[in-house]
User: What shape does this take?
Amino acid sequence: MRKKRVLLLSEGFGSGHTQAAYALAAGLRQLSPDVQTRVLELGKFLNPVLAPLIMSAYRKTVGKQPKLVGMMYRTNYKRSFNRFTQLAIHRIFYTQTEQVIQQLRPEIIICTHPGPNAAVARLKRLGLDIPLYTLITDYDAHGTWANTEVNHYLVSIPVVKTKLMARGIPPERIEVTSIPVHPQFWQSQDQAEARSELGLKNMPTVLIMGGGWGLMEEEDGFFTYMTKFRDKVQLIFCSGTNEKSRESMLADKRFVHPNIHVLGFTREISKLMDAADLLVTKPGGMTCTEGMSKGIPMLFYKPIPGQEEENLEYFVSSGFGEMMHSLGTIDRWFRQIQEPYSSGQHRQRLQSKSSQQYDPLECPTAVLRLMK
Assistant: This one.
């Protein structure tokens, strides 16, 4: 009997969209051996020369002109892609999409980025007869996600469902499933055991992340300030794919210490979260959801104007984290994690809250149900 094929389409604008696609794919395979998945960053797959140039330009804009990114996000917030825009996107980036679909022959298509979502929606309007599901990977619903051809939306929280309904999407086609995380994050490991396996000391530990693109240049001195605690607090800096940032840190004497670890790209984020007492991160939808699944307290810094601001608002208002406004915020949290009883009690409360509000199996389970 042929396995059911699921095609997941994303784009590499940030890493969260593609991480969500891989997380959902892994969850589907974990729950059902009858499912075969394929994840593609569609624009990069179809345009291997042009796509990296576009991604690089976007990354530089985010780093150097975040206000411009925010202005573009807000200006088009209520607008979906009209038919002319869909046609333009198709001709520039997605001309071979139909051929890819015909070759892979999926039973369903799941999009985790508005670009492929618009491309497949256009093909459905022209006669493609394959169910299209859309997984929104943030805690907000930008207008570009909305397409009447989408068969079903999978969203993070009820507020996102309400926003889609306001854009004309029928409520029966929207399901609140949370954002999926990889099965590695479905359960937590004993903290001391995780530290031992990672070669870390069994002491108060802070994990500092900057998303898939790694730590950006610090304008506020927060990271450098954290090194003042290095004799009492273990610091793990994850620079992701930002090798320039990693090299800069390793060349700085303030970051050279037995209790400071500067990592590049790693697949051990789940275990690192288990080992840590505090997560310092940008409020990307995926990283925050992974942190919530682990029940780890989070400190947020430098949200990209737009969706990261919406993510920040949700996690702060829900009690899972706090904005890092000042050095005083760092002082307060770094003191707290040095008090084992207080720190342990706080994490237990977050883990209890997480188990009540977040079910990592909900999204893949919903997809399997829709496929029947």
In short: The longest strand covers residues 4-10. Residues 340-357 form the longest helix (18 residues). The chain has 17 helices and twelve strands.
